[in-house]
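Hi team,

Filling in the usual template for the complex we talked about on Friday. All components are listed, including any nucleic acid strands or ligand strings, so the model treats them as one assembly.

SUBMITTER: L.P.
PURPOSE: interface mapping
COMPONENTS: three
RESIDUES: 1045
SEQUENCES:
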Amino acid sequence: MSTTIELRDLRKRYGRTVAVDGLSFTVAPGEVTAFVGPNGAGKSTTMRMILGLDAPDEGAALVGGQQYRSLPSPLRVVGALLDAGAVHPGRRARDHLLWMARAAGLPRGRVEEVVELVGLGPVAGRRAGALSLGMRQRLGLAGALLGDPPVLVLDEPVNGLDPQGIVWIRGLLRSLAADGRAVLVSSHLMSELEGSADHLVAIGRGRLVADTSVRDLLAAASGDRVVVRTAQRTEAMTLLANAGATVSATGREVVTVSGLPAERIVALLSQRGLAFSEVAAHRASLEEAYMELTRDAVEFEAPATGEA
Amino acid sequence: MGRLLLAEWTKLASVPRWVAAMMAAVVLTVLVGLLGAASSTSDANRYWDFAVGPDGRSVRDDFHLAHRPLAGDGSVTARVASQAGLVGELQDWARAGVILKEGLEPGSRYAAMMVTPGHGVRFQANFADEVAGGGTGARWLRLTRAGSVIDGYESVDGTAWRRVGTVDLAGLPSTVQIGLFVASPDAVQVTRQFGSVGIGGHPTAATATFDNVRVEPAGSPPGASWTDRDVGRPALEGDATERAGGFTVSGSGDLAVVPPEEDVVRLSLTGVLVGLMAVVGLGVLSITSEYKRGMIRTTFAASPRRGRVLAAKALVLGGATFVAGLVACLAAFLLAQPTLRANGYGPPAFPRASLTDGPVLRAVIGSAAVLALVAVLGLAAGAILRRSAGAITAVILLLVLPQLVAAALPVSAGRWLQRLTPSAGFAIQQTVERGLCLPEDGCFPEGPWLGFGVLCAYVAVALAVAFWLLRRRDA
Amino acid sequence: MRQALAAEWTKLRTVSSAAWLVAAVVGCTVLLGSAMTASVDTSQCPSPASCQEDTVRLVLAGVWVGQVAVVVLAVLAVTNEYDTGMIQTTLAATPRRGTVLLAKAAVVTATVLASGTTAVIGSLAAGRAILPGNGFTEANGYPPLSVTDEPTLRAAGGTVLYLGLVALLGLGLGTAVRDTAGALLGVLTLLYVAPVVAALVGDPAWQARLQKVAPMTAGLAIQATRGLERLPIGPWAGLGVLAAWAGTAMLLGAVVLQVRDA
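RESULT (copied from the run log):
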């Protein structure tokens, strides 16, 4: 189980709009790759091209080194959830999975396995049109997991899930990656993937903005900043600057320090007898890190489109 | 309600596909009308050889006449003692009676009282005006002249007279021809098999005996005497013999306006049938698309009085379709007429149709109204069934299939199908009365309004059901 | 291909609308056929023998309505997937689009052929029961309907084939148009409006020309067992015209499916 998704200079335009503009990245096995970007950034188009639904104008999207369309048994290689609403409302949930199983040549028993796996058991006999959005999302996930594929492509799987469901799906994503699968999950809300994503691919206006591991990103965004809360701001700033740190006033009583570890700051302040109410090492959330990235992307994009 | 109408109009006009569908309906209506006109030819004018009536229309003025002149005011009275078939069976429309005619040339003005075996006593003047008698089984007939006014009377016993009709033939010369006439039209036989029709016809002749023949004043003009002749060109030669106070007259032919062989107005509006399909789709989708996308909940949340929503939808849809349909039908009519005339559909066999004629205007506006009604029928069906496929199929089955099936069934069964289904609405396109009215020619024997009323009734019932269901069901 | 067939068959049998439509194919065909047969009797002709009524065609006339259910079934088989977006899942499961269309065609056509056969047998049975009562007796020159009679067999079998081809026409157009309303209106216009317009055209030569190319009038020539010389087009040639329509529609659908993004 070590199949990758590989995008090479992927390009797609609809009429005069460029939806995806020279996108290249790789989704590695054993990792959850968060695929983020604002609405309309080209996430869904990219995923549709991976699945051979839309043909790229240039470049290629390869799964395990092959075009999706040439996979002999695609559901056993890639499990996909694109649109949870894309089911016939009159067909029972179980029957929806059954036809997919037939298309992949899987035994009927596999349907019951995935129904249990996603917790759809009590409603599997209902018509798909009568399912709640959350249940339909689970049905879509069941379909993706049906062929026990080494690659998963999930478009906004968290949509419509209740808080319990979100916790559940985070755990599911982690365990899927732990099995050695390559998992590509898109979202426009980075916080939804907090704690489950290993890798981050961010796009804006169809172009790659960041392709980085989540650990590196967080470290870069957090830096080694320490937040100091003190009534004697000016004195503290002078002291710490003299000690070699970069300091900036970020509030009336708040100083943000980088370049010195927290323990050393506490020692310095105590030696001088400066009172402080808090010394906290700042840790950026994934959301913050992502916002920072996309903000840069927007600033970077604006003149570039002007030239074009 | 004003705001609702505006909201529904915005919905309709803001979906490019629907605007396109409406345009497609217009274009298809015009285009198919033009294609129909271009692919229709008639050589009726080549053999068209009928007398021209007083109003310029082609008429049959063929009968056998025993006559004498009458100067000034006066009257002619006769009793039709018997009427019998001479060649072929006695026809329902065989005519025997008294006539007062301006002259003996075919097409000249006249007034006549007559008996017919199938349609009773009738007063007829100048081919087009016909009044039925009292239905009392009268055999005594009388025409009186006072100046230019002719009155027709009937009587059961020759003493009590009842006036049936009157006509003012302005400028009638002082001396006219009066007499006894007999006519018998061609027998037409329609044999219908499944999918094919055979029409056979042969000329007939009838004979009638007249007694109690009296002309008053008898001596005006002096020396007037009875002679007999064929007027026009009856298919079979007639004859008349005089016997003590009575005559036996036999003859063939008819006195009637000759209907055009084809309804050129309806022919140029054939495209409505195709434009209709787009309109049905539009009507159905205008509501089912709201159900499919769940938008109906937004609509009902914005205006909780659902009946009003339906009414606003119907008004907007019907209004928009009517306007588009009117443009289409006017264009189709105006563009197709020159082509049709060039293809042989010209006078005299086909009187020139103009928008100022009542029936033509009725057909053009009525066709637009049919399109609008069908759109609303689609809307109602969509509201009832809530599924596009079902609603579209149901409406089209009701509108188009009867026209196909009616053509295959025996004439009487076919007519019932024509009358009872919404496809009856197409009757409004009819502008001429035909001699032979068959369902497969799109001919409705009851005339334009009954069928149109049937369609209106269907739309009303469908809307009522939709209204009731909308209020009863959850959105 | 085998898996695609199994998937399409599962899809078709797991929506209740399909079962209703199959019932409608049989029910409408037999009912309308019986009603039309019952309304025609020999008393409308000068003598029973001179009716020359094509009783086989009369009895099978129910397909005029029955075919509508076929059209809806075939069109919905594909447009429903576009309406709901399920086509994405279908093409992700079977990326070879030609295979998907072929599998759909095979499953829908097989279903239609089976229901069509039932409908035709039912109509013939109903006709056998009704016809003698309306004067169409052996003595009057109308032997009881039997499929051992070659023209009757051709008409009956041809009617089943007709329904199959109509299904392909609907499926092809549905795949090309990707919209339920549009495809349905397109097919119904071709089938129903074309003959009505043809009947209203004033020139007999053009009437015959239109009837020769209109899919319904041409295709149903296969039902004629009497007066073949009066038909605008021969039975098998007529079915061929319909086959050409169906083939064109399928080709169009296949091209659109291949070329356009899902």
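MY TAKE: Confidence is low (pLDDT under 50) at residues 299-308 of chain A. Chains A and B do not touch (no CB pair under 8 Å).

Thanks, L.
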